[in-house]
Amino acid sequence: MTTAPFFRKTYAGRRVLITGGLGFIGSTLARALVALGARVTIVDSLIPEYGGNRRNLAGIASRVRVHVADVRDWPRLPRLVRGQDFIFNLAGQTSHMDSMTDPQTDLDINCRAQLAILEACRIHNPGIRIVFASTRQIYGRPDYLPVDERHPLRPVDVNGINKIAGESFHLLYSRVHGLRATALRLTNTIGPRMRVKDARQTFVGVWIRDLVQGRPFEVWGGSQRRDFTYVDDAVEAFLLAAARPEGVGEAFNLGGPPPVTLHQLAHLLVELNGGGIFRVREFPADRKKIDIGDFYADDRRIARRLGWRPRTDLKTMLARTLEFYRTELKHYS
Amino acid sequence: MTTAPFFRKTYAGRRVLITGGLGFIGSTLARALVALGARVTIVDSLIPEYGGNRRNLAGIASRVRVHVADVRDWPRLPRLVRGQDFIFNLAGQTSHMDSMTDPQTDLDINCRAQLAILEACRIHNPGIRIVFASTRQIYGRPDYLPVDERHPLRPVDVNGINKIAGESFHLLYSRVHGLRATALRLTNTIGPRMRVKDARQTFVGVWIRDLVQGRPFEVWGGSQRRDFTYVDDAVEAFLLAAARPEGVGEAFNLGGPPPVTLHQLAHLLVELNGGGIFRVREFPADRKKIDIGDFYADDRRIARRLGWRPRTDLKTMLARTLEFYRTELKHYS
User: Fold this and answer.
1) Are the CB atoms for B137 and B292 separated by under 8 Å?
2) How far apart are CA B87 and CA B90, in angstroms?
3) Which of A95, A122, A121, A97 is nearest to A109 (CA)?
4) Own/partner long-range contacts of B55-60 (Cβ < 8 Å, ≥24 apart)
5) Would residue A201 be called left, alpha or beta, if left means φ above 0 and alpha means ψ between -120 and 50 degrees?
6) Cβ distance A133 to A201 under 8 Å?
7) Minimal Cβ distance to A161: which of B103, B119, B165
8) Do residues A185 and A149 touch, judged by C-beta distance below 8 A?
9) Which domains does chain A have, with CATH numbers?
């Protein structure tokens, strides 16, 4: 990373709180921050359906503090945010289907707890710098491609509605209460430590699990075009967003290398794996209702404002992910 | 009302639930529905800071059922929605300032309870017809005037963020779960039974109270242009929206006669009152932060789709409101 000295200067010795820090992106961020010399505290609920996994801290576990706590547990929040310099706020319910079958839980985590975190910051640590993990899901079915930040927000599921509220609270608290928060709207993020047990984070997880286990994987539809961000690139965006003053009160898309269809992605995975089988099937009716079709993000705004660019091409990110799960799958399935 | 026979055919003998039904618009709607022969049930929390007032049912109290209940009390919802043909969902926290000082309460009422109401309908009464009271507050500071329904949603306070979520849940449940819901985005609504105790519903309430009491009222700023809907016109929009199939899954602005500046409004009120004094003062800093400046709605979409038009001119609505409070003020302050 060319920006390593800048990041070291920003984060060495600083106190950083990561909510959802045992999850896929949160733990990768924790690993980067530990390497930069930051004093990292993690909050994670370790709810089995969500992304938290203690294995994600392998090699750094002794250098971070972990609180197993739920962000819905408000009374604990003031103590957690006090004294921190940064908060990377990644705790969330990510499954679109779960948000439809259990909408109140999605609301309590993605909307209500977010407001509680911000209130805790406003009252107990108004000088803290906040980066919030938002999602492309808030756009819904695109009117045009690539989707930039001015695209209307028209979510197709409960998760999208609650994530809009969560993001909006962050930007409002910046504008009205002087908290310094930035939101990153993530697309499919891929890499080592992603959830592969099920499709609650991304369908690519179960594809990779099945491939590594030598089983056929299922492609639903297949002609949809999607974009993918490598987890290290996403982590760099979080580090940049918190380190730079330019993005306060703003939301930025993250993108990746040029989009591909799910068919192309499946073929590429099979090729990189040196073999494998997939079956194409119709979209299940209950998922079709909340599917967003083609999606890829225009990430020129964060390039312009913060100098972020995705560095990792699709082949590289998939190859590294496959390689990771060839030895690590037993800890993740 | 030229549409009275149509409304009578739609509502006579039908079972109607009104949440927030002891409030200003809810009770006016209840009065209209009772006159049309509907079987009206009201749910209202009667929380002093909100709009509910038993006096609002004067003359019809024996002909409606009233449950003093809070929509946040989920276990009660299934019994309330079962067997109803219509639900007019007006329960809400309306104060923008209160949403900033107590954001979680605003969230619990305007966002979380709305999802609970919809879940109760989905599970216990999926055939019900729903009209939701949304607000122009969701637009924030207008990019252009008049504001139509395609204007970006960029709320300036917690109330606006939660009302977006509440409205979005209604439209999503229409699209995905087949509930039939319509949202009406209200602007300032004026008329007999409006809250005059404080500015929690609209600033016009306290102006009228002070005028009727012979005291000077305060105009903050004064050059902002705003539009006003007479309560009977708003009620007609609710009745139409529930009676017609065209608006299912859609949101419509309500508007009113041509907008005026707050100065013009103040002068008009003094003139209609046959005298009175107002003082112009600077906007208080905490309100300035969440003020939306000029606002008036483009209501051509509901005119086109449902045939609704505001019928009452500004002078008439103010004169009727003043007249009401000349005799009724003691029950409202």
Assistant:
1) yes
2) 9
3) A95
4) B55/B328, B55/B331, B55/B332, B56/B22, B56/B23, B56/B24, B56/B27, B56/B28, B56/B193, B57/B22, B57/B27, B57/B30, B57/B31, B59/B31, B60/B30, B60/B31, B60/B34
5) alpha
6) no
7) B165
8) yes
9) 4-191+228-257+297-311 (3.40.50.720)
Tell me if B158 and A103 make a contact (CB, 8 A cut-off): no
Closest CA relative to residue A27, chosen from A266, A267, A193: A193
**ipTM value > 0.90:** yes
Residue B37 near residue B4 (C-beta atoms within 8 A): no
Could you list the pLDDT tens digit for every one of the 333 residues in chain B? 447 899 999 999 999 999 999 999 999 999 999 999 999 999 999 998 888 999 999 999 999 999 999 999 989 999 999 999 999 999 999 999 999 999 999 999 999 999 999 999 999 999 999 999 999 999 999 999 999 999 999 999 999 999 999 999 999 999 999 999 999 999 999 999 999 998 888 899 999 999 999 999 999 988 999 999 999 999 999 999 999 999 999 999 999 999 999 999 999 999 999 999 999 998 888 777 778 889 999 999 999 999 999 999 999 999 999 999 999 999 998
CA distance B322 to B66: 28
Question: For the whole model, what pTM was predicted?
Answer: 0.95
Q: Judge whether A110 and A102 are in contact, CB under 8 Å.
A: no
List residues in chain B touching A: CB distance below 8 A.
100, 103-104, 107-108, 111-112, 115-116, 119, 150, 152-153, 155-158, 161-162, 164-165, 168-169, 172, 175-176, 289-290
Question: Which residues in chain A have Cβ-Cβ distances shorter than 8 Å to B115?
Answer: 103-104, 107, 158
- Which ranges constitute the DSSP H helices of B76-218? 77-81, 96-101, 103-107, 113-124, 158-177, 203-212
Q: Supply φ then ψ for residue A298, to 5 degrees.
A: -90, 115
B245: preceding bond cis by omega (within 30 degrees)? no
- Total count of residues recorded for chain B: 333
Pairwise CA distance, residues A181 & A76, whole Å: 21
